[in-house]
DNA sequence: CAGCATCCCGGAGGATACTG
DNA sequence: CAGTATCCTCCGGGATGCTG
């Protein structure tokens, strides 16, 4: 229940926090990437296999963005052929339970 | 924690549910509208006052979409001048706690 | 008061080919 | 293997004006 003041003005919603949250999950793919990786570690190729309908460009761009947002970590192994692994950062893991609940919202509106 | 099978394949993420959830909160305004209205009842004009940076067209369009999605109810009063009131549907109210938590996600990535 | 109609632009998102 | 580079399409979102 949202508390109201005596003038019946709704409790202020923090638009800043909303927009920050929307940045994390915005677009067609970010939330999917986050939920897909979960507690695991993924290579570029594994994402491609799991999300075949997502283009390489989109995948590369979204991964880069999520790294910049400190949602994902990117680990490069000095091997030949190169190996790059992605996993959630601490912040990402903290957000995971909430983001998983969004699937319940999807279920609600079936 | 996500359970895995013995082949280390991650538990399937339900892409259908994700996309349905994303429809509900997609765009720059839907989540904001939902959180703003909360348990209250809003008139068109009140939205405009609370969200002055949102154009009328966007507001009208998003309200209509949210009504079609069964997130909002629209009640028209046969008065002159016309009065139209919006509030969350039962489903909308059920989703509200989860959607509110998204602000915590925004807070995490400050 | 509470919208809809019309026009427009920028950027999200896609297809394909190439590279360290 | 893990990405860039380039090009292109489409539509979200804004501005403005009109209407029941």
TrEMBL record, chains A, B:
GO molecular function, one term: DNA binding
PROSITE patterns: HTH_HXLR
Keyword DNA-binding: yes
Transmembrane segment boundaries: 17-38
Domain HTH hxlR-type, first and last residues per copy: 11-110
UniProt keyword list: DNA-binding, Membrane, Transcription, Transcription regulation, Transmembrane, Transmembrane helix
Gene3D superfamilies given in the database record: Winged helix-like DNA-binding domain superfamily/Winged helix DNA-binding domain
Pfam families registered for this protein in UniProt: HxlR
PANTHER family reported for this sequence: TRANSCRIPTIONAL REGULATOR, MARR FAMILY
Name of the protein in its database record: Transcriptional regulator
């Amino acid at each position: 229940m949202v508390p109201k003041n005596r003038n019946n003005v709704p409790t202020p919603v923090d638009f800043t926090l909303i927009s920050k949250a929307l940045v994390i999950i915005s677009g067609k793919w970010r939330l999917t990437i986050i939920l897909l990786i979960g507690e695991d570690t993924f290579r570029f190729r594994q994402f491609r296999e799991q999300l075949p309908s997502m283009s390489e460009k989109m995948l590369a761009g979204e991964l880069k963005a999520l790294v910049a947002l400190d949602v994902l970590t990117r680990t490069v192994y000095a091997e030949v052929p190169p190996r790059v692994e992605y996993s959630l950062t601490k912040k990402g893991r903290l957000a995971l339970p909430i983001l998983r609940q969004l699937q319940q919202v999807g279920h609600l509106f079936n």
